[in-house]
Write a structure and sequence with these properties.
mainly alpha, binds zinc ion
């Protein structure tokens, strides 16, 4: 778990299926996603909607005067429903407790019980000990 892998929206790229290099249906991707922060161009979720993010004027959405904006709220709704992840809770946790504590809590939350690797939030798979065929 690394701070560079925590996206401005509060998502953790380290547990993302695209970062592991797979699609949702279990196929290996031609190109593994290098994480939201190291992508040039558009953010997977919010950048196309947000000038502050595009220009790099905020590091996290909670720094924004419009936090939480409608776009973030949409992402929040999708992720709480589908993946049991609240990006707003993540962001508030980072703001209140700091990045180190956040990364530690993520490590606990997504640790593979079999091998100690990192579980994928999108597929609930561990690609370290059970990669798809
Ligand atoms: Zn594992």
């Amino acid at each position: 778990m690394k701070s560079e892998l925590i996206a401005p929206c509060g998502n953790n790229c380290a547990i993302c299926v695209a970062f592991f290099g797979y699609t949702m249906s279990g196929v290996k991707r031609k190109h593994t996603c290098p994480s939201c922060r190291s992508r040039t161009g558009t953010c997977a979720f919010l950048k196309q909607h947000c000038e502050l993010l595009t220009k790099g004027e905020v590091e996290f959405c909670f720094e924004c005067p419009n936090y939480p904006c409608a776009h973030l709220q949409k992402l929040e709704d999708r992720y709480t429903k589908k993946y049991n992840v609240s990006v707003i809770e993540n962001l508030n946790f980072i703001q209140n407790n700091g990045m180190d504590k956040f990364l530690n809590s993520q490590k606990e939350k997504y640790r593979c019980p079999k091998c100690g690797g990192i579980m994928c939030v999108h597929t609930n798979m561990c690609y370290s000990c059970s990669p798809p065929e």
